[in-house]
Amino acid sequence: MHAPQRSGELAFAERPGLRRLLNHLRWSSALAALLVLPAVRAQLAGSRAGLEGGTAAVPDLPKLEPAVVESHITVEGRAEVRLAPTEIRIVLAVTGEGQTAQECRNAVNGTLQRLRAAWVKSGVAPADIVEDFIAILPRYEWQIEKQADTEVGVERKAGYRMQTNLHVKVPDDARAQQALDQAFEQGITDIIAFDYGSKELADAKARAREQALQAASRKADVLFGTLFPTRPPAINVQEQTTVRHPESLYHSFSNSYEEQVTPTWRRDVPLIRAPRPRNTYYRGLSMDSDVQPDDLPMKPEISVVSTVRVYYRSPAAR
Q1: pLDDT by residue (tens digit) across 74-122?
Q2: Residues 165 and 176: beta-carbon distance below 8 Å
Q3: Are the C-beta atoms of 186 and 157 separated by less than 8 Å?
Q4: What count of other Cβ atoms lies within 10 Å of the Cβ of residue 94?
Q5: Which member of 76, 150, 282, 291 has the greatest number of CB atoms within 10 A?
Q6: Alpha helix positions (H), 161-244
Q7: pLDDT tens digits, residue range 125-137?
Q8: What Rg do the C-alpha atoms of the chain give, in angstroms?
Q9: pTM greater than 0.85
């Protein structure tokens, strides 16, 4: 008896020559797919991606009450001006300890004098170095003593600790790094704050205000010129100009992979977590403006934002 002949792909694949051809075609397709892969690039998002919900939503315009619609029309313009700082203030904490308050003060004074001398030698004006005394407080330690045949823990004064804040003003980031390096050489590592200022702040406010007013006027030209035969008269105006310094434009978030299960059978063993980088970076001002810089906020700058709201009489007003 003859075995029944198989049809379709089984019969096709059982033939050695055709089977080799089929395998060759499959490997060729796979190789072509691999060659295309380098052209496909991953989306760059970083650790922050997906943590801040709702940022992709565009808010709807609020509905106005009929009384407001028939009384006036508001047109608003907003402009942001970025300003490079012309001076930076660094605040450092200088601390010292001693058995007496005077010893503590002498230790702090010695560090201050050495750091002042290093800064002045590098070009910092003496008037740009200011000492801001904070506090000198007693320091206590626990001691085990025997009282009435019983061991007790007693707090005893063990000395004093003093903190003095030192302010130094420098013109730019390069001089700030130099001042910090000199502080590190003296063992000062407590950086309290960075503050940025500019002598051109008043001019930046005026420019932002002017740009916001121009943006509102251009909006009015487009809207009224299309919708109304004549431009409604302006009846009032509001203006607000705010300044956002770099220290308020940093952003922090939490995102890390951590162990979810901690064994409970060794409660006597302290658990020491591995250090993780702090997810803090300079984000800059994030807002919708009619006029704003085209460049990304790559370095700390002062943001000046002006908002101008113009009120026009509604054609329906009586």
Answers
A1: 999 999 999 999 999 999 999 999 999 999 999 999 999 999 999 999 9
A2: no
A3: no
A4: 22
A5: 291
A6: 173-185, 201-227
A7: 999 999 998 899 9
A8: 35
A9: no
